[in-house]
Amino acid sequence: MTQPPVAARIPHTATHHGIVRDDPxxxxxxxxxxxxxxxxxxxxxxxxxxxxxxxxxxxxDLVETLFAELKGRVKDxxxxxxxxxxxxxxxxxxxxxxQYRVWLRRPAAGGDDAVILSExxxxxxxxxxRLAGISVSPDGRRAAWTADDDGSxxxxxxxxxxxxxxxxxxxTTAIGIAVWAADSASLAxxxxxxxxxxxxxxxxxLGGVASDGEDDVILYEEADASFFVGLDRSxxxxxxxxxxxxxxxxxxxxxxxxxxxxxxxxxxxxxxxVEYDVDVRGETLFVRTNDTHVNFxxxxxxxVRPGEWTGLMSGxxxxxxxxxxxxxxxxxxxxxxDGLDGVRLIFPDGAERRIAFPEAxxxxxxxxxxxxxxxxxxxSYSSMVTPTTVYDYDVAADALIVRKVQTVPSGxxxxxxxxxxxxxxxxxxxxxxxxxxxxxxxxxxxxxxxHLYGYGAYGLAIPPSFSASxxxxxxxxxxxxxxxxxxxxxxxxxxxxxxKLDKRTNTFTDFVAAAHALIAxxxxxxxxxxxxxxxxxxxxxxxxxxxxxxxxxxxxxxxPFVDVLGTMLDGSLPLTPIEWPxxxxxxxxxxxxxxxxxYSPYDNVEAQDYPPMLVTAGLNDPRVTYWEPAKxxxxxxxxxxxxxxxxxxxxxxxxxxxxSGRFEALRETAEEFAFILTAFAxxxxx
Length: 686
Fold this sequence. Notes:
single chain; alpha+beta; Rossmann fold; seven-stranded antiparallel β-sheet; 12 helices; globular
């Protein structure tokens, strides 16, 4: 039996605001990062993986059964619904057994299918492959595509001749999707620096000298290390949209796609605490901004005077305006009303229409609509019991047209499940929504088993959507719930603000309150609730594992951000300066230091019993560096007083999202489900 490694304790201290912080596992951070070649560190991580494999071995049949179930719910030859863009229809498909997509097009007027890019071909021989996106030139002759082949999120940018299939490497320091100029002779792309911060937008001209992007013209460079740069295009394709933003402030620049070397025009100079984004229709600019209301308002401006904003829709305490798309014949708004998704259309004559959907609780979003107008608006819809459905909304007829319903090949009957939305009362009296799905006939007397998921950061809501994988828990008698805790924007932008900075602890107490509410509703009892969360949701897992360990049957923390204090004290890390508006800057403030130190999971590990815990990490992860979960597990192992499993699995060739490929990702899900099931003493592979 391979035993988990006991990490060496090497004295290491740092002093801030007169407070000495002891960090004996600091040595697990390779000083050469992002290069990781320290032999002792690699040996320690290998030993953790060996211990995980030892734990996994007797549960191999269960994992294989789960993996087969998960695969059986995936349509082997799945394909996307074609979407029109100019002279072509574009879509993707999976070949039977394929891990990656093949991207295709055909002439809209009729003709043969043609492969634009085959991910299986590009991924061949690679342990990891992730396509960021494909952008076809306006003349349809070329495609720019970006891909990451090690999980570090440092993407290579290629230019493909669609007639010959030949690729030219444009840059190895790209991120995101390239945007074409109107004449198809040049394209803009975003560059990351050595610290992985997107900080420049460059213009590559076709036929230029291959120079790994170094000779490409700089269109914009952001000097503030706390701001990241993003690149997009307006819906009418008339402009490049260059955004510089942190988590509370944004600033947008416009460049006409017909004149990409023109000086960028600032829409409105950045003001701390004001966020805005824009779209263009002809000579009118449409703006979504929180300058006068926390839930955002909609304004317009003449393109020649983009900073002169005139109100179109005022802010609303109940209606959270999440996004806008300025199509040629109407404005489409993504909204959330009282925490529930919706889509509103605004027409040039001032008329409004909110699209009606068939269920009371669901999630819906505006999908890919690449043309300047969308008489058929492509939408993506699902609920906790309804598989993902692709709709085209016929604007003229005010009617939804079903284009595709997610297939569950092994079978799925929505009638076998129930879903509801309940509210937990937080410690400050706030009502926190909880979405729960469970098998029909589930006992409501406290004898059942429950899994609870949470995130709660960056204003990212966790929608009440469908998951085919989740059926492996439901069909074994486990209810599944999502706690819509503060820190996300589930109930509006104020919901986000009330879960960040000095209000961060609301996220954690909301989650515990959700667990107690579910227990009170009879779904389970204390100690029969498994929980999971990843990244910033891993912070949540770490905090509640420290604060309420007896509540949980098992904890799964995926790539968890658990050394919050240590990371926020390190301004040399690429994400730290941009994260200060989200978590606080403990370098600048003793009060912030104390606030983070009071909850940071790594700093608050105690000598107490902990539930079974599975922790994952990615060696190449640029978002949550591998040493955070490694240090946390080392400290937990040294302090915990129980005999429960504590496992760390490190993906040695992947990053923040785990393994690539649809089936390899499912195997990791199968392993995590097996861990949860064994904690509930469900070990029968059959």
